Structure formats: structure tokens, C-alpha cells
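Objective 1b: paired records.
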Amino acid sequence: MLKIIQNILILTITTVTFVGCNSQTSLQEYLIEKRDNDKFINVDLPVSLLKIDSLNLDVHQKSALESLRKVNVLALQIDKGGKDLYGTEKEKIKQILKDGDYHELVRFGSNQKGASVSYYGDETAVDEVVFFGNDNEKGLVLLRVLGDDMNPAYVAQLLSSIQGVDQDNQGFESLMSLMK
């Protein structure tokens, strides 16, 4: 009987050790890791900086805006010294999105350039939306929108209304400079 208990205990400890040693990198860990790398452009924007609240929003769009917290942007430009990193970083991001708990909404493009939109959370209460775009000549961009129980339909309405935002404000100016 003591031998059985000892074997069960050893098996339990071994299982906990293997489960606890998860080598899979999360998107958050990846963003933090790249924060100190000068070849990457890394910007964290609170939603308030974008000054979207100045728009005439309906109830659903206001609800979507209130559910947003922060936007993380990570970019690697090939012409700014990122050519040697581009291929490996592109594959790392793809693997993180594939292995994590992200659900892909859409993917489009070719071998030369492409983009995908994924989300983390429940279909009706999304906590994170991730846009990943890559271009073999320009580089890559990773845009992560964090929120609390975001309703995808309301967020889509909000994004369509953002087209009317004054693009001279500082938040949009920062985002647009990454895309040049």
C-alpha cells in the first residue's frame, strides 16, 4: 500500500512539473521581450490618447469605447535594420497566435505579404483583438487592442466611426508614423 501511494505521489509531482514548465511564449511576454530591442518600434497607447470620445457616438459605439483599455503596437521595419530579424520574428508571432488561445477571424494575403485578425476570449465577450500584418519588403506590425468583455459587433461599429476622427491628433499621428 505504501508503495502504491509513493508511486502515485511521484507520478503527481512529475505531471505537475511538466505542466508547470510550459515553454510556450505568450503574446504579452513577446511584447515585453521586444520592448528593449532598438530594432523594434514599440508603442503602448491608452485609448484616451486617441481622443475618440469627441465623436458623435451612438449607445453601442459608446459601450464599445468604454470596454477598450489600451492599444499595443509593435513594428519591425526592414529598411531600418530589421531585415535579418524579419523572417524569424514573423514565424514567432505566427506560432504564438497559433499555439495560444487565440481564435482567428480572418486571414488574407500571399507569400509576400499578408494579414490576420484574431481574438482572445469568448465570442460575445472578447478581451483582446490582435491584428498581425507582414510584408516581405516593408516589415511587420502587430497591433493588440486590450479591453474588458468587448462586443465584437459594437467594436466593428466603433472602428467604422473612427474614420471621422481628426487624424492630426497626437495618438493617430503616432500610429500613422509606424505605417509609413
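Objective 1b, second protein:
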Amino acid sequence: MRARPFLTSTPTSWAATTRKAPLPPVENSGVSPDERRVVAVDGVAMVRLLGPQDRLIRAVEARFPDVRVHVRGNEVTLEGERAPVAEATRLVEELVRMTASGHDLDPEGVRESARILQNGGSVSPAEAFGQAILTARGRSVRPKTVGQREYVDAVDTNTIVFGIGPAGTGKTYLAMAKAVQALQRKEVERIILTRPAVEAGERLGYLPGSLTDKIDPYLRPLYDALNEMMDPEIVPKLLAAGTIEVAPLAYMRGRTLNNAFVVLDEAQNTTPEQMKMFLTRLGFGSKMVVTGDITQVDLPTGASGLRLVTRVLDGIEDIHFSRLTSEDVVRHSLVGRIVDAYTEYDQQKQAQHFEREQAREFAHRAERRGGPARLPGDRQPPRA
């Protein structure tokens, strides 16, 4: 496949028209396709639509292996069986629309767009991804899945939001983007980012160095995300002025956080007492976002404050729980499959644990009755 860009810049208006073309035999195959459609693109630079090294259009081909895609000038031709050609055409038209509206697409975005269209919901990919939360250092930060879009919308409409999901779903990154956006819009006076310093109840004494040396590695991911979203030269000034504060969870005790956007990361490693302490720091004019993955609890006792809070606070007005899944993973596509594999493994372990506990309970009951242990479904022995 060969791409021929016909524009070098993106005008303010665009149009994509689709027409059915005559069906001469496909070159070198001797077989006529069932359907051929041509998407004529006007007002969008083809180099943006195709992506670097044609990666975006190749993602379309990978999603629809039975559809042949040809690009010539400002036309994208799709050939093959009627149903997949129709779906691929819808996808290409949606990519044109998203490119024209300023979305920075990547192959993962193409795959997610195809999934949204296939599900047939009322929300289009362009609506699902929405407007950029913020633009910094030449790149925009925006939701990339339907789940992420719902998560971001929940942050806009609720005072406390819990973002729960596996690694790679953008829980913390999007929360921090919303915090930076709120600060830039002067909706809050400061940003507070916190996380449990270590998994073992914040026990730092065994580590060498000062307290700052001990906690800095655990807070480094938050600093890295800040530097991606803001000018790295401005971040130290905001930190020095107290406009942005990055601190371990233990530093929140005894405080009231007014007019602040507060993000608690790695919340699965908080104890129930720590979670209660944190949530009760909420002051006037503030917003809280709590993120974590309940499948990665590192506490020695396994008593996670995040697990408990989903039961205690569920249903309370102005508190929202957003649950992201492997479908919202925006890292390498392999990460989603890894998450699914571990989820299936954990479910099998839970089922086996339940069976063992059930067998132990029946054995205990039988011992108290003085008879043999029988599990549900066992046949009664014949009477003499």
C-alpha cells in the first residue's frame, strides 16, 4: 500500500464523501470484490490520516484483514465483502472526523474506535474521546476509551471520585491532568498529590538516608507525570510556593484541605484507617480523586482500605466509583491480555479457595454429627 499526501497542513474545514465505485476485477486476483467504496477526503492532510509510516491505515487493515485498502491522492478505496467493507468505511470516515477535530491518533486509538463502532452504542469515537483536557509540550491529554471518558466526566460532576482498575488504564494520569486543568482555570488554589510511601504501612526506618531520600523514590512517578503535563521549569517554582504539594499519605493527618484538588494514588495500599483519615481531610471548595488497583494489594494483612470503601461508601450522593477494565488499557496491546490472564487466574484461585473452605465446613459438620463427611451432590449410601 502506498500513501500519497496531498496537503501539508490541515485547513479549518473538512469533508469526507463516500461513493460506490464500479467493480472491475481486483488486480492480480482475477476475482471481483463484492463491494468497493471510495472515501474522498478534503480538508485533512493525508499524512495525518495515514499516520507515520502509514501506521494508522495499517491498523485499519489489521482490524479488517478481509478488506483491501488502497490510497491514492486524497482517496481511500476499500474493497472486499459487503459487510466488512461497510464497517471499515465507517471507521475511516470516523478517523477523518477525529483528525479534523484535532485528535492525535495512534494505532491503539484506531483499534478502540473500531471497537466503539462495532458495539453500536449511541456515542461515537469522537464523542467518547472528547476534547483535550489540556495541551502541554506539544501533545494533548484526553480520554482514549469510553471508560476513560466516563471517568473524566465523573470527576467533573462529583466531589469525590474513585478510579479503580488495572495498570495502564490511565487512572492516575487523567486525574492529574484534571488537577492541572483545575489549577490553570483557577477553580482551585493548589494541587496535592499523595500516595502511601511504601506497601508495609509506610515503614521507612530500614532505608538509608534522610526522610526525603527515603520517600522520594515512591513519589517519583507523580513528579514525572507533572513534568509531562507542565513546563519543567515552572514545576519547581510551584512546588516551592506550595501551589503543588507532593507528599506521603502520613503527612495528611490532622489537616483540612480547602480549595484544593487532591489525588491519592496507589490507594489499594492504604489501610482502612488511613483511607478514613484521608477522606475526612476534605475541605470546602475541594475535590478528591482516589486511584488504585484492588488486585495489587501489597499490605501484609491484605486489609485494603480501597476494598472496604467500595462497600462502605457505595451509593452516597456526590461520591462516584469508576471501574476501568482491560478494555481501557492504553499501553501496549499485550498489557491488556496480561491483565485478562491474571484476572482469570485470580478468579480460579478464588473458586478453588471457596471449594476448599466449603469442603472443610462440611467435614467439620460431619465430625460434629459423628458421621462421614459428604459434600453437596454426594449420593446417600444404601440402607442395610
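The radius of gyration is 27 Å. The chain is about 40% helix and 15% strand.
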